[in-house]
Request: fold
Amino acid sequence: MDPLVADVPTLQSARVTLDVLHTGVMWGWYVTMNMWAKSVGTGVLLVGAYMMRRHAEHQAFYRRWMPIIGFVFIQLTLLFTVLDLHQMFRFWHMFTHPHFTSSINVGAWLLTAYTGVLTLMSYAVWKKRDALWDRLLWPTLVLAFFATIYTAALLGQASAREVWQTPAEVAQMLVAATLAGSATFLLFGEKKPEESLSLAWILGLSALVALVIFGAEVIFAPQKSEEAEYVIHTLLSGDLRTLFLAGLVFGFVVPGVLVTLSVRAKQPVALKLAAVSGLVGLWLAKHAWLLAPQHLPLS
Amino acid sequence: MRLGFLVDLTLCMGCKACEVACKSENNVPVGSWRLRVKYVDSGLYPEVKRSFTPMRCNHCDSAPCERICPVSALHYLPNGIVDIDKDRCIGCAACMMACPYGAIYMDPESNTADKCTYCAHRVEGGLEPACVVACPTGANVFGDLDEPRSRISQYIASHRDTRVRKPEKGTLPKHFYTGAGAQHVEPLSARREPGFELFNRLGTLDKVGGP
Reply:
């Protein structure tokens, strides 16, 4: 014990001598996988749409792979969502007993609709029906946007868990999606140098913005409560320090550095490494962010 | 009608009769609690004091668990009780993420969320909650907060030190304490060192009762 505290015969020397065991982590790596896969599943659409516009001459690649990659990763999202339920065979209650004040329920409908349009887009790819594909693009982008940010609303509703309610959570979700989407495209398929450069910019800027937001939220901003301080302490100095800092370094610092080096030295291999590092680091940072508030005693 | 609860902590002696009555009445599984009593020791020898805090669901007027539940398994009864439909619950644990009081647990037998319901089944039959009946000192006061002549309303009116847990969360709890200090209602006011959970660390098999 801190000797300064030990000498003070007040509440600071109070200790819990009988209580129930802390509930521990209820939302573990399944939920992290859910959020990470969703970042890829919506990010490829958001980034892909930009790339189609920026590099119209190479849009065939994005036309084909945007809906397919998006579909696969959204199915992964849904798989981990269902696996995390203690009563997974009651998942259909979401639709038969919907409660629309719940972000989880709204998210379930959004992801279902998103899956539907991605399926139609994939069908359009298969049947080479470009007109159908074009008509579906805007509704899909709107759904991708809201599917990306609904998790921020969900974390905001989890009001017992400090720091999840930060206003920047929406921005954090969006940059996670653009980071994951650009990293996925950098790893996947052959591209012209100018395409890779555009993707590298998106990856680098996303990493930078994410790092700035985390810095502002975690390091520089005063916390609103003792509980929030406790959670931040857990992230920066406590049990999750290594995980969180590894997430920041691999997710945002390394991609930023490698993108800069790659652009200057024209080294495409460095971009692939930046993409892998970004995806791994994003998972680690999200996992630490998910776990930290669950270490807080509530009673 | 808005049913509420008040615990006079100056009367509570930590006997855990309420805890036992609750488990017995509601068949709460081994290792789980709808209601529990926390002990906090403060001061340094010989100036040492032990305080007791019974804790249960706060049945908030603005319950975050009710809002976040995706299937309305958590819902309000007309008398203000926040009840749970275990047959509807999908076990997403979102309510456990939302409840600032740690009042909800995952039932290891049914694999669904569960919590104190103020013994809604007894209240419906005109009885008081089991914990109220079992308390030997009358520390638990239960009644209608909308009725000025009810014992709980009069208790609140006559005790200026009445307070709730975490009012800053804006949940409008209907569970009050009198005679409470920080050690009773603020989780971080007391350290938690290994051993406090020793007598409550009772095991049960994982996933008993199917998926």
About this structure: Residues 17-26 of chain B form the longest helix (10 residues). The helical segments of chain B are 17-26, 64-68, 94-98, 120-124, 130-134, 151-158, 182-185. The two ends of chain B are 38 Å apart (CA to CA).
